[in-house]
Amino acid sequence: MTSSTEVKSSKKPADTRGLAGQTVGDTQICQVSQTELIYRGYEIADLAEHATFEEVAHVLLVGHKPTADELKRFKDELVSMRAVDRGILEVIGKIARSEPSSDDAHPMGILRTGISLLSHVDPDCEDNSPEAQMRKSKRLLAQIPTIIGYGQMSCEGKTPVDPDPNLDLAANLLWCMTGEKPSELNAKVMDVSLILYAEHDFNASTFAARVIASTEADMHSAVCGAIGALKGPLHGGANEKAMAMLKDIDAYIAAGNGDVDSFMAEAFAEKRKLMGFGHRVYKNGDHRAGILRSWGLKIAEQNGPDAKKWFDIGDRVQQIMFEQKNIYPNVDFPCGMTYFVMGIPVPQYTPIFVASRITGWCAHIMEQHQDNRLIRPLANYTGPALTKWNEARS
Ligand code: ACO
Predict the structure, then answer these.
(1) Parent domain of 262
(2) For residue 108, what pLDDT is reported?
(3) By C-alpha distance, which of 104, 192, 197, 182 is closest to 149?
């Protein structure tokens, strides 16, 4: 029994595992809240509508909206940095061709290896001065599409193409991956998706990058760690898994096993996690998801009923998740469908995320180095009690 002065709270204590709800540092780069996503003072819908990815990259890396001259210089510099060392490309091609179905040959693994190799030819690799960090950031931003494209073309047995200096970063990424000049709409949608993916404060991969940077390690090491964190299906890998789920639903319907509703009922009964849904911060919806869905839908509608069906299935999944679980899609859900109707191979979805988030990661690595203190939290020990070695039974 409780006395009137000892009223027990019926509220469960907050679950802070995974640092949920914990603020662990300051940043000037990005503000994430239930109501807004802001890159250095610019709201995401505003950026997606009015800016280009290169402008957003300038905002994140350099710190301000570029003038026309600054933007031209920035873009020219990026174009001039796109070529990747031939020896590195040969290694990328060899891995991509050799084991296309093994986990090690997953494009995220190839990209992680590629960044690691780039560190060996980067003259600034061990230099953590602000000027060297900026040069490395630009090289990484410029060269990641080249590596992604070379790996994809090699994996498909095609002859890789050189980056096209006449194309902006998004269009060049599509060109390098396919060897075909993208349509204006595909290039625009890729550009918007890169803007949406560019930055998200202390998400898992960025935090991993900051932890590594806080040891005063070099930028390439921090980026390799971030790629490893992004690869997981609870983070960036979800865009590939979201599309895999839609394909499973399509196959389930085609086999006469039922419809979207019965697939979802089975998923709920088995307590399956649905990829591309839920978010650690956004509990009322991810600001980026609706923006990307509407652009993806434009492509699907243009491509006809076979493309549009993925959005019809996705919309029903989304509706059921909302009605029955009150869980909203995150940006990875529409991303899966959008990249699919653009004809992009599914294993490249998360590497494309890297091509964008490299801007956020590098901005955070630079910010960490500017006012560094080693990131080293404490742990609450829950293991066995102290025992004398000679008295312990093995
Ligand atoms: N499918 C089914 N149920 C879910 C999902 C989901 N995708 N997401 C959350 N839930 C449920 C949980 O099971 C939990 O239910 P319970 O209270 O009955 O146990 C409740 O919603 C709260 O979820 P948490 O796991 O506490 O949320 P958390 O903040 O720890 O995790 C995460 C967030 C990892 C994103 C989670 O929602 C998830 O696994 N989603 C699927 C993977 C995904 O889409 N990741 C991409 C995130 S966005 C990005 O990285 C770009």
Answers:
(1) 238-341
(2) 97
(3) 182
Q: Is residue 391 part of a domain?
A: no
275 in a structural domain? yes
Q: Which of 283, 306, 324, 286 is nearest to 20 (CA)?
A: 283
Going from the Cα of 367 to the center of ligand 1, the distance in angstroms, rounded, reads: 29
The 10s digit of each residue's pLDDT in 167-197 is 999 999 999 999 999 999 999 999 999 999 9
Give the whole-angstrom CA distance, residue 340 versus residue 346: 7
- Residue of 277, 240, 273 lying closest to 103 (CA atoms): 240
Segment 75-91 mean pLDDT: 98
Contact indicator for 178, 339 with CB cutoff of 8 Å: no
- Identify the sign of the CA torsion 39, 234, 338, 259: negative
The count of domains in the chain is 2
**What are the tokens at 123?**
């003259």
- 216-225 per-position pLDDT tens digit: 999 999 999 9
Give me the catalytic one of 279, 287, 364, 369. 279
- Count the neighbouring beta carbons within 10 Å of the beta carbon of residue 325: 13
Q: What are phi and psi of 42, to 5 degrees?
A: -110, 130
- Ligand 1 site: residues with CB under 6 angstroms? 18, 20, 234-236, 238, 273-280, 327, 330-332
Four-CA torsion 148, 150, 154, 156, nearest 10 degrees: 50
Mutate to test the pocket of ligand 1, among 12, 272, 279, 318 (most ligand atoms within 8 A of CB): 279
* Residue 361: pLDDT over 70: yes
For residues 227 and 116, state if they share a domain: yes
**Interval between CA 286 and ligand 1 midpoint (Å):** 13
pLDDT surpasses 80 at 93: yes
Residue 332 appears among annotated catalytic residues: yes
